[in-house]
Amino acid sequence: MPTSDNGLARLFADAERPETPPARPPARIGPNAIIQTGEALSALDGPGAARLIFEAAGLGRYIGVVPTTMIDEREPVALFAAVQATLPPAEADRVLADAGHRTGHYILENRIPPIARQILPKLPPGLSSRLLVSAIARHAWTFAGSGSFEGRVTGWTRPVVTLAIAANPLATAGCPWHGAVFQRLFASLCGNVGSVRHSQCCARGDGFCVTQLSLAPIP
Fold first, then answer.
1. Degrees, nearest 5: CA angle 27-31-36
2. How confident is the model at residue 8 (pLDDT cuts 50, 70, 90)?
3. How far apart are CA 144 and CA 27, in angstroms?
4. Which of 22, 45, 64, 143 is the most exposed place for a label (fewest CB within 10 A)?
5. Is it true that domain 28-216 has CATH number 3.40.1210.10?
6. What is the DSSP code (8-state) at residue 17?
7. How far is CA 219 from the centre of its chain?
8. By C-alpha distance, which of 102, 97, 62 is closest to 80?
9. Concatenated DSSP letters for 115-167?
10. If you average pLDDT over residues 159-187, what whole number do you get?
11. 143 pLDDT band (50/70/90 cuts)?
12. Rounded to an integer, what distance in angstroms lies between the CA atom of residue 143 and that of residue 175?
C-alpha cells in the first residue's frame, strides 16, 4: 500500500505523544477561606477543636502561622470537608457561615477602597448593587478559585442580585460560606438584604452554585 513521508511522520508523532497531557498547576484562591475558618472554629468551638480539624484536613502547618499569600484551592476544600466531617451538620454550617461573615468583613475593611465604602451606601440600591457585582467579578479568584463566576442584577427599586459559580470548588451543601460573604458585602454597601436564597448547588449535583439576594433601600 503506498505511503508518504508525511503519513509515516504522523504515525511516529502519535507513538511519541504522551498518554496523558501534562498536569495543570492547581488553581489558587485567597487565603481568607482558611484564615477566617480558623477564627470561626476557635470562636465557636475553641482552639482545641480548631487544631484537631486543621490537622484532620492536613493543614496543621497553619496552626499559629496563617497563610499570607494565595493558596492552593484544594486546601480550603479539605478544611471545609473536615469541618463537615467532624461537626454536626448544623454546627458545621454555623462555623462556615461565621467564616464567610468574617471573610466579608475582611474584604470590606481591606479590599474595598474607603471612598467606595462611603459612596456606595448612599446610592440607590439598583445602582450600587450593579457596581458591586462588577467589582466582585473582577476579583472572583478570592472565592471562586478554578470556578467560573457570573453575576447580574435585575430590577432597580428592589433589585435582585444573582451570583453564580460554575464548577464551584468550595461548594458545600447550601454554601453557607459563600452566602455569608455575599450577604455581608451587599448588606454593608447596597442596602438591606431581605433574603438570601441558594437555589442551585454544585455540592448537590448541579452545574452551578447560584445565590440570590433580594435588596431593599436603606431607611
1. 135
2. very low
3. 10
4. 22
5. no
6. S
7. 30
8. 97
9. HHHHHGGGS-HHHHHHHHHHHHHHTTHHHHTTSEEEEEEE-SSS-EEEEEEET
10. 96
11. confident
12. 12
Is the pLDDT assigned to residue 148 strictly greater than 70? yes
Name the nearest CA neighbour of 147 among 78, 219, 80, 201. 201
Residue 25, pLDDT > 90, answer no
**Residues in a beta bridge with 160:** 154, 214
**Any idea which residue has 480548631 for its cell?**
50
Q: Quote the CA–CA distance of 96 and 203 in Å, as a whole number.
A: 15
- Residues 40, 43, 49, 55, Cα dihedral to 10°: 40
Cα–Cα nearest to 76, from 6, 26, 149, 137:
26
CA distance 167 to 205: 10
Mean pLDDT of 154-162: 95
Q: Global pTM?
A: 0.86
| pLDDT tens, residue by residue, 189-199 | 998 898 999 99
